[in-house]
Amino acid sequence: MSPVFPMLTVLTMFYYMCLRRRARTATRGEIMNSHRTVESNSRTSPLNAEVVQYAKEVVDFSSHYGSENSMSYTMWNLAGVPNVFPSSGDFTQTAVFRTYGTWWDQCPSAPVPFKRTPANFQSQDYVELAFEQQVYPTAVHVLETYHPGAVIRILACSANPYSPGPPAEVRWETLWSEKPTKVNASQARQFKPCIKQINFPTNLIRLEINSSLLDYYTELDAVVLHGMKDKPMLSLKTSLIDMNDLEDDDYEEKDDCEIDNLNKKFSSTALREGPSNGYFDRLPYELIQLILNHLTLPDLCRLAQTCKLLNQHCCDPLQYIHLNLQPYWAKLNDTSLEFLQARCTLVQWLNLSWTGNRGFISVAGFSRFLKVCGSELVRLELSCSHFLNETCLEIISEMCPNLQDLNLSSCDKLPPQAFSHIAKLCGLKRLVLYRTKVEQTALLSILNFCSDLQHLSLGSCVMIEDYDVTASMIGAKCKKLRTLDLWRCKNITESGIAELASGCPLLEELDLGWCPTLQSSTGCFARLARQLPNLQKLFLTANRSVCDTDIEELACNCTRLRQLDILGKVQSVSFVLKP
Question: Can you give the pTM of this predicted structure?
Answer without folding.
Answer: 0.86
